[in-house]
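Researcher: Let's try something more involved. This one mixes different molecule types, so please make sure each is placed in the same coordinate frame as the others.
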Amino acid sequence: MSEPLTPEASTAAPTAPRRKRTNLRARLRGWAPYLFISPFFVIFLVFGLFPLLFSVYLSFHRWEPAAGLSAMNWVGFENYVYIVLNDDWFHKSLYNTGWMAIVSGLPQHLVALPLAFFLHTAFGRWRNTVTGIYFLPFITSSVAISLVFSTLFSRDFGVVNASIAQLAQLPVFSWFLPEQNIDWGQPQYTKWMISFVVFWRYVGWNTVLYLSAMQTIPKDLFEAATMDGATRWQQFRHVVLPLLRPMIFFAVTLTIIGNLQLFEEPFILTGGTGGIDQAGKTAAMHMYATAFVDGDFGTASAVAWLLFMLIAVVTWLNNKLLGQKEDKA
Amino acid sequence: MKNMIRPLLLAIAAVMTAGAAQAQNKVTITVASFPDLDRGVKAAIPLFQKINPNIEIKLASLAYPDHHTAMTTALATGANLPDVMAVDNDFIGKFAESGGLEDLAKAPYNAMQYRAKVAKFSYPQAMSGTGALNAMPVDIGPGAMFYRKDLTDKAGVSEADLTKSWESYIEAGKKVKAATGAYMLGNAVDIKDIYIRSGLKDGEGVYFDKKGQPLVTSARFVKAFELAKAARTAGIDGKIGAWSNEWTEGFKRDRIASQMMGAWLNGHLTNWLAKEQAGKWRSAQLPNNSFGYWGGSFYAIPKKAQNKAAAWEFIKFLTLNKEMQLEAFRKLDAFPSLIEAQNDAFLDQPIEYLGGQKARQQWKVAADKIQAIAVDKYDPVAREVVNAESRKSARTEQGHQDRPRRRTSHAEEARAPLIPGPRG
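Model: All components are placed in one shared frame. Result:
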């Protein structure tokens, strides 16, 4: 009665579920890549795309957030019109942003370019160490930097004023240095102080960018230039600068975007207020205050989008100035 | 035997049901607060659970600005709302008007019955324009002038010279500056802050009247700016912002002779601002019979909270329990809002730091005299506008006369995007 199982019989029974499993596995295998890359898309949708679209939607509303989502009132372009035509504080903060973007941004590149060339040619194997030192401010927390600088620039107890006072005792310096401590919180100094901190922080970053680009320039070019009797300056002017143009475009674009969004440094250095007469208030700070002090999230969203458009326009202009020539070259 | 088993089984069943019911009744409430107010909650938890073993309390504490931002977001989305929400004085107007908080005046809370039990000016702060009570006051900040007795003695200035009038205060400041080199006050803007908060008509807000119209052009504001200007011109202020490096160092290095603020400043002076100057400080009433408040904290229940009954029990414990209020006073220097606690013998104890002065009684006198000031949800905007203008105004020597006028237009402009009228 008990017949031994034939090979067919012995395999037939388990094959059905196995085939099912294989099917499932095959199907899963088809989906696996999507599954593996899905965390990025899920996170991007939740924390990237949704807030982006919601803020566009919000910018056309008047909304007091504490009253809940149901309290949103459609106002069309009213927020935009108000900001462009009537919001003095936005105009002022935009002016401050532009001022500080230029005063802190331009020197960054004017210093970083020759500095990178100098590090590239002069330091040899110590180059990386020196570059690391220049890069240090960039990786330090901006909050920590701002706190340290606000202590340094303290009117009565700051090192900057103490140094000026010491220098002022010397005969020549005493002619032009002030006798009394400088109150760095006064509006005529605020923007300079913030710009200095921003410059100090990002000059190393730009130096590293330029240095890395310089290292890709073939040595033959320098050797050929040297053979032709080109001086260091001529090498810098006629070899390095033209070849660095794509990197200059990239670095300047980053500076434009970063400086137009400037927030942490002025926020901490001015105690969140923008300083006396709002001399150090940037557009990003104004946006923050509109949302979280005034509780007007609609107008704040509109400020954000106006700022975005401004950044887009300035970046496009930058592309016209620096980028296109590269294409022709 | 059979007869005995049945009641025994019934008894066991009854105990088990009761146990299950008890376990079912056990609720956990979330309390959202910020430092140092959260210390009061921490102190309250074990005491509260002795009385209410079925209510578990989970404290979620964030830094002061982060807490209020998180609460704004939570109210906006209705997600992650705590059962009990701490609200600081600066935000109470905005939150009270939001409509996102329970009206504690209504049933089942009926909190208006407790109104006479707490400082009279504290309830109106948490009431919206429609008369809803949105939060319970847990502590108040009656204003006081802390001054350095050793410095004023050296300058031959008496306490009466400091408090008689604003003019006498400024004159005394000149003497103190001449005799000791110390600034009379950190920032002339402090005078403006007090003056705009004193002498208000009943029901009037600091920045807006009952109808929501801005008051920043009123004589009160003009005088406030003029006094601040006079102090600046007299050179008696250090042009120092509160809580800045200059400010804290100014206390440590004997450069600030007086500071007007909430009575709670005593705790800060004692613990860190001017530890070394113990015994040299005194407390007095504000000049010119001004009585105002700095700060104050509240607890509210969001409309979408899960455990409102338990939350209300805990809020009542924090705000209406005498022992708890005194505990917070002892530990945090948080002046109690509860009058019963204000009448405790603890207020008679001399404060060593203030040279043995019984200053708490003095603060109680101030608390009794502070008028009810209505809050407006646009107060933060108006405050920002006025502060920006006052910093500017105090800076320049000339041209301050037209400031109030210009300021109004700013205040109105700032208000414009928010109020439904002009733009809606």
